[in-house]
Specification:
Length: 598
């Protein structure tokens, strides 16, 4: 759960690590006008394997990222009803009784696990892809393919609509959420400062990983998209703008979410107090409790305050007797439950939204905001696959539509694996354990290649000559010392943090409709290690290759002289075929940095 101390740490790391590394990737892609597969061989000969690892990370993420969008489309499909199905349990066929599995839990959790995911009781229970998700999943890939069919230019035009719509939705949700009863409680929780967190290495490492994920660094799309930018473009200002946009977005969305969750906690606590009052009255009528335990009859518009005040004023012995029959109603306890349920943030947020007045409209608005972010993030990853393929295989350069359709179809087929009842458990395994370490290794190698192999001062001087104005040499120090140290610290902290915790996941237990914590089977650890080895394999292999053939560590020539006529012709073909503007590319990069939350 993010609090005020987390935002301070996040902002510091965004300025010291996130923006400098974003500037580095933008500058390298723009300066070289090449895809990420081969450009690192030119900048830092020993880092030649980084481009291939980046491509593999991008491919792995793209296999499951659009599955998340299919879940949202499933929600949208059921939003056009007078009573949305996640607000009330379904009835049994030919009966007036509720579905037993749903009656033992909340309707939102039942809808999420049984109607959308068709979740199995464990990762070992595979099964076929959920038929109810195939059409939403196909629609997700169809839209991505249509938006990208004419290349980056069509993508930019689509995002000219998606980005403003998403911003308007965010501000509408923020204004509405701040007007809710209980919003101030959520905001108080958000602004709660923990001084100890400022000295926690774990908090800094988590915030650092969050910065890398939020900016979309190390996964390929940033460099691929920047390779289409004119070399004279000032990507430093772009990096600051994108970092500022991300920070503002976070500062808008987070208070909105906490306000909604504060309202949900308040409404849930009110219902708890009302149920307790009814239960106590029945127990007194039955003679189980003495008449002195009779709750107040007039609870007004704030039943929680009236009930808790009455409960505190009871004699201690009578108070303990009352609490032995009814649960304690506390908004703070509701926030603890939210903190424990962050692994299924989507159904938690949907349940909170469903308690709003006019919930059907606000739920639809929320889903549209999530879809704009999810689809544009997917388009960014697909660009990270298509651009290197076109640049590496000459016969694909004139087949932009063919390669877009082919890549979308391939990813569609690969993603069917994650539509199975155990698919969400595999997504968590890949997302939590198999993604962040390769990204940190990629960024560390990129940083070393620019700062030490090519030379940070020389790189900055070339940009200064190209742009015609001086650049702050603070980036030389950041690239050479601060960023490598931070990335090495993350590279040590993340494996230690993951190894100290068991390899577990939260599974649905259909027998009693509860969530249980299960350990991943032994082959889950083997799968994680195997995936990490495959993703990182190109980096050490190319390093060994350089040692065997005595390839020097440092690049001795300038980038301009190292660029072959092939790469120059390729960049010219990019410009003539794409004809995209700087603003269109920045729209794609900006949306690429907005990761979907799961």
């Amino acid at each position: 759960m993010k609090t005020g101390s987390f935002f301070i740490i996040y902002t510091i790391l965004l300025v010291l690590v996130g923006i400098p590394l974003l500037f580095l990737e933008l500058a390298v892609g723009q300066r070289m006008n090449q895809d990420s597969l081969d450009l690192w061989k030119i900048i830092g000969p020993w880092s030649g394997g980084v481009g291939y690892t980046t491509f593999l990370v991008c491919f792995t993420s793209t296999t499951y990222i659009n599955v998340i969008n299919s879940w949202i489309f499933f929600y949208v499909n059921h939003s056009f009803q007078s009573h949305v199905p996640w607000q009330k349990c379904p009835l049994l066929r030919n009966s007036s009784d509720f579905e037993p599995e749903c009656s033992r839990t909340s309707p939102s959790m039942y809808f999420w696990y049984r109607q959308i995911l068709k979740a199995s009781n464990g990762i070992e229970d595979g099964g076929r892809p959920a038929l109810s998700l195939i059409m939403p999943y196909f629609l997700s890939w169809f839209l991505v393919c249509v938006f990208m069919i004419n290349g980056l230019k069509s993508t930019g035009k689509v995002l000219y609509i998606l980005v403003p719509v998403s911003c308007v939705i965010m501000f509408c949700l923020l204004i509405r959420s701040l007007m809710l009863d209980g919003a101030e409680f959520g905001l108080q929780y958000l602004l709660r400062m923990k001084t100890s967190a400022m000295y926690s290495f774990s908090a800094w490492s988590i915030a650092g990983c969050q910065v890398l994920f939020d900016l979309g660094l190390g996964s390929g799309p940033i460099i691929s998209l920047a390779s289409h930018m004119p070399r004279s473009n000032n990507c430093l200002s772009d990096a600051f703008v994108l970092g500022l946009v991300k920070l503002v977005t976070l500062l808008v969305i987070t208070p909105c979410l906490f306000s909604i969750l504060g309202f949900w906690a308040t409404a849930t606590t009110h219902r708890c107090s009302e149920r307790n009052i009814e239960t106590l009255i029945n127990l007194i009528t039955q003679g189980t409790l003495p008449p002195e335990a009779h709750p107040p009859a007039n609870i007004g518009k704030n039943p929680t305050s009236v009930y808790n005040t009455w409960l505190r004023d009871l004699p201690e012995q009578l108070r303990q007797l009352v609490l032995s029959h009814v649960p304690e109603c506390s908004r703070s306890n509701q926030f603890v439950k939210i903190k424990e349920s962050l692994h299924f943030v989507i159904p938690t947020l949907v349940e909170a939204i469903s308690t709003l007045p006019g919930s059907a409209l606000w739920s639809l608005i929320l889903f549209l905001m999530m879809l704009t972010g999810g689809l544009s993030t997917t388009m960014g990853f697909v660009h990270g696959l298509v651009t290197p393929l076109q640049d590496s295989f000459s016969f694909l350069r004139k087949q932009s539509r063919l390669i877009t359709v082919g890549t979308s179809m391939t990813m569609f087929v690969c993603g069917l694996f994650f539509l199975r009842p155990s698919g969400s458990y595999f997504i968590r395994l890949l997302n939590v354990y198999c993604t962040i370490l390769p990204i940190i290794c990629i960024l560390l190698c990129e940083n070393i290649a620019v700062a030490w192999a090519y030379g940070a001062k020389r790189f900055i001087e070339e940009l200064k000559i190209l742009w015609g104005h001086p650049l702050a040499h603070i980036f030389v120090s950041l690239w050479r010392f601060v960023n490598p140290l931070m990335l090495v610290a993350l590279l040590v902290a993340v494996p230690v943090h993951l190894s100290l915790k068991p390899l577990i996941y939260v599974a649905w237990n259909s027998k009693n409709s509860t969530l249980i914590i299960r350990p991943y089977p032994s082959w889950g650890l083997v799968l994680v290690i195997s995936t990490l080895v495959i993703l990182l394999f190109p980096i050490p292999v190319y390093f060994v290759y350089c040692l065997v053939y005595r390839i020097p560590f440092k690049s001795k020539s300038q980038i301009s002289s190292l660029m072959s006529s092939k790469s120059i012709n390729l960049s010219d073909k990019k410009r003539s075929s794409m004809e995209v503007s700087r603003e269109e590319i920045l729209q794609v990069v900006r949306r690429e940095s907005d990761q979907p939350f799961f």
